[in-house]
Fold this protein.
Amino acid sequence: MNELGKISSKSQIKKIPGLTNLYNNILKELEEVEEKLKLFSRSPNKLVSEVSTYLFQKSGKRIRPALLLLCSKLQGYKGKENIILSALVETIHTASLIHDDIIDNSEVRRGKESVHAKWGPNITVLLGDYLYIKALGLSLQSKHRRITQILTSISARMIEGELNEYYLSGNLDVNEEDYLDIINKKTASLFSASCQIGGILGKASKREENLLMEYGNNLGMSFQIIDDLLDFTGDEKILGKPILSDLCEGRITLPLIYTLNNDGKDNRKLIAELLSQKNLQKKSIKEILKIVKSNGALDYTHKKAEEFSLKSREIISQFPKSIYRDALGLLPEFTLHRRK
Ligand code: FPP
Ligand code: MG
């Protein structure tokens, strides 16, 4: 692997460390984050404690908490506030996912029934609101008043991104710029904020804070592009969620945008016809998949994710060398080659 980490052979891909290796130097802190999440799940309200306990059973990748912890340590932070704030970003993420699963009609998440499949949409909406408000309220205890401001403004951005994505569902005129704007808001903003908050704790200069935000933003973009790619190419068992769900819900993601703009007019017309069906048949999905797989759309999408991934590595390499910088430098590579 060269300095910026271009993966040049298949055997090197095998050497990409899993998350446990990447998290090696923050394992103790991540355990403490888990404890905090368990604490958040406790409530005299039986339903709140039952659903939250179900939600926080350890099965997520915990990337946002890891980013916050690593960025704070990169900046030499030695205090304890990074634990609670990491738990808060994970809580906001979890609240957003349970709402997202209702919007996307997803019945499975992290290999288990989604919350709305198990408890129905009403309880799920309320629990999402509860977790979200609780997280923001707890952030007010931070010494840094800016942090609540950051969390509220990026939450609004996430909602905007999710709204735009839903609003543009089924619209075949969505272009790459629209798509990048949506994923920037719905996903990259929380990655960026997690890094920024870590930086603030570690007394980052304005320049360092901006670099950390840019690093997180590029990593988040790469992460979501791969998420959308895995929706076409992934393995449901490994992913712990159904594939081809974007197509079924009419979400126009990058592989389809590339196909619609670069395949012939006939295929564009055919895809439009197939997607206009009220209940998309399995046969039609297979037909669209065959077209997407045959025209370089998947390679193009992966290359786009690689561009963002490389940019994030380039940015983090501007910080002084440390074990935390090494982990942050490897995360984009993990993101790019992940199967989950
Ligand atoms: C997953 O996208 C969804 C998000 C990253 C963001 C969802 C945001 C909201 C629902 C807004 C509400 C926000 C708050 C703070 C309460 P995806 O559907 O592409 O990913 P998936 O395949 O994992 O479902
Ligand atoms: Mg979804």
